[in-house]
Amino acid sequence: MLSMRKIVFISDCLSQPRHIKRVTSLLNAGFEVKVYGYNRGQYDVNKYPNGANPIVLGIFGDGHGYLNKFKTLKHDVARIVGENGKDVLYYAFGILAAFMLKQKGCKYVYEISDILYAYPRFRFVMPLIKRIDRDIIDKAQLVVMTSEGFADFHGYKSDKLVLIPNKVNSVLSSAQRTPLELKDNDKIRFAFVGSIRYETTFRIAETIGKKYPNYEFHFYGGTKTFLERCQNLDNTYSNVFYHGAFRNPDDVPGIYNNLDVVVACYTTKSLNERIAEPNKLYEALFFCKPIIVAKDTFLSKQVNKYECGYCVDSSTIENIENVLNSIDYKELNRISRHEYELNGDEFVDNAQILIEKLK
Fold first, then answer.
1. Closest Cα to residue 11, out of 195, 46, 259, 308?
2. Is residue 17 reached through a cis peptide bond, with omega within 30 degrees of 0 on the bond before it?
3. Is the model's pLDDT at 12 over the cut of 60?
4. Does the N-terminal peptide bond of residue 249 adopt cis geometry, omega within 30 degrees of 0?
5. pTM of the predicted protein model
6. Is the CB of residue 347 less than 8 Å from the CB of residue 167?
7. Which regions of 159-272 does DSSP assign to beta strands (E)?
8. So what's the pLDDT on residue 356?
C-alpha cells in the first residue's frame, strides 16, 4: 500500500469518460486530486466533478504527430513536476506521460487502455517500444490495465497489476434494466455508441441503409474526422440516423432505451483492437442488449463467455449480410433475457481494489 493522499493526474484526453470515472472514484475515496490534461478539439461535453477542476494544457488533435506530442508532453510534464514536486503520486493515462514521469524519477501509477505501438504503422519499431513500455511498467508503483488481453500481451503477472475493465459508470448502478420484448415486424434498431472512427461501423450502417428497410442504424457519438460521412448516410437513407455527441454518463440510459442491438465491430487489422476490452460490452450487458462484435478478438471471447451476442467477420458485405439475415426476434429476446438475469452489479465500474492499494 502506498499511503499517498495526493494524486496528480495527467490525461491525454480530458473528456474521456474512463479518465473522469477514475478521478471521481479516487476523489470520492478521500484522496486529494489535481488534474492536468489536453482537450481533443471535439467531443468535449463530459465534465469533471466538483473538486477536480482540470487544468487544460492545450489541444491534442488527431492531426498532431507523435513526435510533436512527445515534445509537448516533455515540456508540460517538466512544468507539472516543478509545480507539484516528487512527494506526490502521479497518475499517467498513456505511455508518453508515464515515460516522462519515469525519466523524472517520480512515483507514478500507469494506466494502460490500449497498445498504441501495436498498430501496423509501428511494426518496425514495436519490439523496441515494447521493451521501453515494459521498463515503464516495471518501475511503476501500480499498473492499471483495462483488459486482461494487455496483461497477456506483456506476459505481466505482479501484485502491482490492477485489472479494471472499462465498465458502466457507477452513478448508473440504479438505472433500470429491462429485457427486450421484440415482436415480429418490429423495426430492429442497431446502434454504435461512442467515438466513431472505424470503417467496419460505416460498412454495417450502409448495408442496413441500402438493403434492410425493417432495420435502423443509429450513430451516437462525436466525430470530427467522419462528421460529413455520418451526415451523408443520415441524409441518404431514411433508416440511418446520426445523433451527434452525448454526455456520458448522463445521456447513456436514454440512448440504450432507444436501441435494440449494440454494434461494436472494431477493426481486427491492429493487435490493439484484437486484445482490447471496450466498455460497449459492459454497457450492452448492463442494459440487456445483444451485441455484435468482430470475431477472433478478446472481445469475442468475452461475448462467448457471457453468451450475449454475435461474433462476425465484418470485413466483407457478404459476411455482414449473412449475420443480418440470421437475426431472429426470438433469439434477440432470449439473449436480452439472459443478460437481464445476470447480476447487473458485475458490469458496473468498481475501483475498490485500486483504492485499497493506494491507501
1. 46
2. no
3. yes
4. yes
5. 0.93
6. yes
7. 161-163, 188-193, 215-220, 240-242, 261-264
8. 94
Q: What's the order of all strands across the beta sheet hosting 32-39?
A: 55-59, 32-39, 6-11, 89-93, 108-112, 142-145, 161-163
Collapsed DSSP state (helix, strand, coil) of residue 181: coil
> Phi/psi of residue 261, each to 5°?
-135, 130
Q: Phi and psi of 125, rounded to 5°? A: -110, 0
Phi-psi region of 185 (alpha: psi -120 to 50; beta: other; left: phi over 0): left
Cell of 180: 427486450
Contact 226, 255 (CB under 8 A): no
The whole-angstrom separation of Cα 320 and Cα 301 is: 19
- CA 242, CA 221: separation in Å to the nearest integer? 8
In angstroms, the CA 14 to CA 18 distance is 9
State the sign of the Cα–Cα–Cα–Cα dihedral 245, 276, 123, 317.
Answer: negative
* Gap between the Cα atoms of 91 and 261, Å rounded: 36
